[in-house]
Design a protein that fits this description.
- With 461 residues, this protein is of the alpha/beta class.
- It folds into 3 domains: 24-222 and 336-416, 3-Layer(aba) Sandwich (Rossmann fold); 233-333; 419-460, no CATH class.
- The protein is 34% helix and 18% strand.
- The protein has 13 helices and 15 strands.
- It has helices at residues 2-17, 74-77, 106-110, 113-120, 152-172, 188-202, 223-232, 239-255, 278-283, 289-299, 322-333, 362-373, 398-416, and strands at residues 32-37, 45-55, 63-73, 85-90, 124-129, 139-140, 143-144, 180-186, 213-217, 348-353, 384-389, 419-422, 435-436, 449-453, 456-460.
- It has a 9-stranded mixed sheet with strand order 1-2-3-5-4-8-9-10-11, sandwiched between helices. Strands 12-15-14-13 form a 4-stranded mixed sheet.
- It starts with a helix and ends with a strand.
């Protein structure tokens, strides 16, 4: 017995010394909350960091423990009011280890799309999964893991499992999570959101997940078209995205023992000047996208934009080469513009600026054209809406996207509460038999805010 105790203590010590306390072995008691922070960094939100099980992207068929964060508005966190619902918020491209939702620092929260939503939206609980390669999966057995950057299937499962796990944990903690479930993301997060919707349609395991709305902005849904457009532009503003796509694809496909990538080296993907920098730029987790972007510009003597062909191999520019065909096959597998059809009652809002300098608008155009080819009506008053704005860059497009998303969230909240939205100036003939406020007092005329008119809740603007 004493020998067994000594063995257990030694094993624990070894785990601590080797930095593998966040073990990836099968764990009991998952999902579980591992940290609970009130009003994190004065953001107006509590943050619940949690662990949960999902699919292992590098070893198909296995499961793995992952991490994420639940952001709860202060009044809901303090149990002063109920949540309108849950917002599955899928974050855009990040590179640095402190940019994941479970590890956000104050300045990171302020400068993310999540931060924009946090500033505007105080009625929804937000669930944000750490993508693979961040948080708990940043290192496994001391080895830095690649991002599953724009890998549709596994990332969709990661965020869906995070959402379902968060609902369980919130209920256990006594939160009323409301009746609305929204799926949302911008840029890479839009690709993830659309992939999540696709997975709920295709995989019976997630058949019980039904989003009231999927809200997507500036997403690279068609990766083959994205790469084609990259080859045409001579002033691309975000070459770091090209490097990420190629470097992480190389790592993941080799880890999965994809025979197409067995003999493909980094030198087969990148220009020889880039190869020595791949580890520092993309694998170590110390640099954010902006800093890496700057360093790529400096490496090639550019400033605000560059020809992508400078940083990639000649083989990656030849559509008949073995390396291009292997890479293109991966792009096709992770594109969302083929092979599925949303349900008739799935509601989707798509946004893209025509001036997007990072994710080409053609990606959204192709997504919309594909939906139409599947018999899905797109337009005003339809379940699928596509909104575009001229001139705005990718970064500038965040603001109108967030405002549009907030309007959708507010409308869903009102509908869930049985509130009818009425502008009396546009409805002068509305028959007002009885008017009350929420305190039950009879009114002579409607007031701004929520009224009870003819027995129904009505929001008067």
């Amino acid at each position: 017995m004493n020998k067994m105790k000594r063995f257990i203590l030694l094993a624990i010590a070894l785990l601590i010394l080797t930095g593998t306390v966040w073990s990836q072995q099968a764990e009991d008691g998952l999902p579980r909350i591992v940290n609970d922070e009130a009003d994190v960094y004065g953001s107006g939100m509590g943050r619940l960091t949690f662990h949960y099980r999902s699919v292992d992207p590098l070893h198909p068929g296995d499961s793995i423990t992952m991490s994420g964060a639940i952001f709860v508005p202060n009044d809901i966190y303090d149990r002063k009011k109920k949540a309108a619902g849950i917002l599955l918020l899928n974050h855009p491209t990040v590179m640095r280890r402190n940019e994941a939702p479970s590890t956000y620092e104050s300045h990171i929260i302020e400068n993310t799309i999540e931060g924009n939503i946090i500033a505007l939206e105080k009625d929804y609980i937000m669930v944000c999964a750490d993508y693979y390669g961040f948080g708990l999966t940043e290192k496994i057995d001391g080895v830095k893991q690649p991002q599953t950057y724009l890998y549709a299937d596994c990332t969709a499962r990661h965020v869906l499992d995070a959402c379902e796990s968060a609902k369980v944990l919130l209920t256990e903690e006594g939160y009323d999570v409301g009746n609305v479930l929204v799926n949302m993301g911008y840029s890479q997060g839009a690709h993830t959101s659309m992939a999540a919707l696709k997975t709920t349609v295709e995989d019976s395991h997630y058949g019980g997940v039904k989003f009231d709305y999927t809200i997507c902005g500036g997403g690279p849904y068609d990766l083959q078209a994205f790469y084609e457009e990259l080859m045409k532009t001579d002033k691309y503003a975000y070459p770091v995205a090209v490097g990420m796509l190629m470097a992480y694809t190389h790592q993941i496909e080799r880890a999965q023992e994809n025979a197409d990538f067995t003999d493909i080296a980094l030198g087969d993907l990148f220009d020889e000047a880039m190869v020595p920098h791949v580890d520092d730029y993309f694998y170590n987790g110390d640099y954010g996208a902006s800093l890496t972007n700057r360093d790529i510009f400096i490496l090639y003597g550019e400033s605000k934009g560059m020809e992508v062909k400078k940083m990639i191999s000649s083989g990656m520019q030849d559509t008949n080469s073995t390396v291009f065909k292997a890479f293109d096959k991966v792009l096709a597998a992770n594109s969302l513009t083929h092979g599925w059809t949303p349900r008739e009652d799935d509601c989707i809002y798509l946004f893209h600026s025509s001036g997007d300098d990072i994710v080409f608008k053609k990606c959204s155009d192709n997504m919309v054209n594909y939906l139409r080819s599947q018999g899905i009506e797109v337009g005003s008053g339809k379940n699928v809406t596509y909104n575009t704005l001229p001139f705005l860059t990718h970064e500038m497009g965040v603001v109108p996207f967030v405002l549009a998303a907030t309007n959708i969230l507010n409308r869903l909240q009102e509908e869930a509460a049985g509130i009818v939205n009425v502008n009396l100036n546009l409805n002068p003939n509305l028959n007002l038999k009885s008017i009350y406020n929420l305190s039950g007092q009879r009114l002579k005329a409607p007031q701004k805010g929520i009224n009870i008119i003819n027995g129904r809740k009505v929001l008067v603007r």
